[in-house]
Design goal:
The structure is a single chain. By secondary structure, the chain is α/β, with parallel strands linked by helices. Helix content is 21%, strand content 23%. The protein has a 6-stranded mixed sheet, with helices on one face. Strand 10 (233-234) and strand 11 (238-239) form a beta hairpin. Helix 2 (62-70) runs parallel beside helix 3. The protein starts with a helix and ends with a strand. The chain binds fe (ii) ion.
């Protein structure tokens, strides 16, 4: 009898300790992920792409502002932002402060559903159950104003748009869709074979049907966020969920997507204010270095 009580108490104590660690330390322990992606034509100069995602800004997160501002020291050729910037009506000026000098660099973005609706508290157990298709709609967030700030700074809004830019004398084709998590994606609006030296596709949620569509059109790098890398990972097992159709093993980082194409999923820089904990999954940005394909 005594033993039967002791096990749950021990597990509860362990869980409380992990949650305290994940709240007090790990959610602020930012990491820079590095990855090399062999997708450029032979002889091309390398290109660096800084991937940021899922900042989920609320007021009073100075640790996050200062770390993101410091990323400008990497001097990326392109900044890609795959959405979920804000988690509060007061988040916009903080996002702009955090991005700061990065907004003066070439940049492109797509929204995540958390840019549209304020977060609401949910039963955490729902995340571990199969997706029942239900979505929550909190108060509207001022995404239109943030989007206007991005575009007036020169960043490209890739919501159902394709465009080609020149970086280091390479034609870099960019395309993107709105967020599939709320079924707002319409790939048919941007469908068509790519023609640039390299093509990068953006989608906040890495739904496999979208990634397949990008790859079939010749996009060689797809970039997404949304999964938070699982946010709470089990050492030796990995992410418990991806919150979409992506397999767990692809929850964060670079992985191949068919012949010649790659997927990069950012574990993101923030969390919902209702689940401000990370475990074995620190917040991150990624510096991708695009290099020539190996022959
Ligand atoms: Fe997110």
């Amino acid at each position: 009898m005594r033993r039967a009580v002791a096990v749950p108490l021990g597990a509860a104590a362990l869980g409380a300790a992990a949650a305290t660690y994940g709240w007090a330390y790990e959610r602020k322990a930012f990491q820079l992920r590095l990855a090399e992606v062999p997708i450029l034509p032979a002889g091309a100069p390398s290109l660096t792409v800084l991937h940021i995602s899922d900042m989920h800004f609320t007021p009073n997160q100075p640790w996050k502002v200062s770390w993101i501002r410091s990323l400008d020291e990497l001097e990326p050729d392109l900044v890609v932002n795959t959405g979920d910037n804000i988690a509060s009506r007061r988040g916009n000026p903080i996002v702009l402060d955090a991005l700061g000098p990065l907004l003066d660099r070439p940049g492109a973005f797509v929204p995540g559903s958390n840019d549209w609706f304020a977060p609401v508290g949910k039963n955490p157990a729902r995340y571990l159950l199969p997706d029942d298709g239900r979505r929550t709609y909190g108060d509207p967030l001022p995404w239109g104003e943030l989007r206007a700030s991005f575009t007036s700074a020169g960043w490209l809004d890739l919501t159902h748009r394709r465009t080609t830019i020149s970086l280091r004398d390479l034609k870099v084709e960019l395309g993107g869709v709105s967020d599939a998590h709320y079924k707002a994606d319409h790939y048919d609006r941007i469908a068509g074979a790519v023609s640039g030296d390299v093509a990068i596709g953006l989608s906040h949620t890495p739904e496999p049907r979208l990634l397949d569509a990008f790859a079939a059109d010749g996009f060689s790098l797809m970039m997404s966020g949304h999964t938070h890398g699982g946010q709470l990972r089990v050492p030796g097992y990995g992410a418990l969920i991806t919150n979409c159709g992506l397999p767990r093993w692809r929850a964060r980082g670079l992985s191949p997507w068919g012949p010649g194409a790659w997927l990069h999923v950012s574990a993101g820089l923030g969390t919902s204010p209702y689940a401000p904990v990370r475990f074995a999954c620190p917040p991150e940005a990624t510096l991708l270095t695009l290099v020539p394909r190996s022959e």
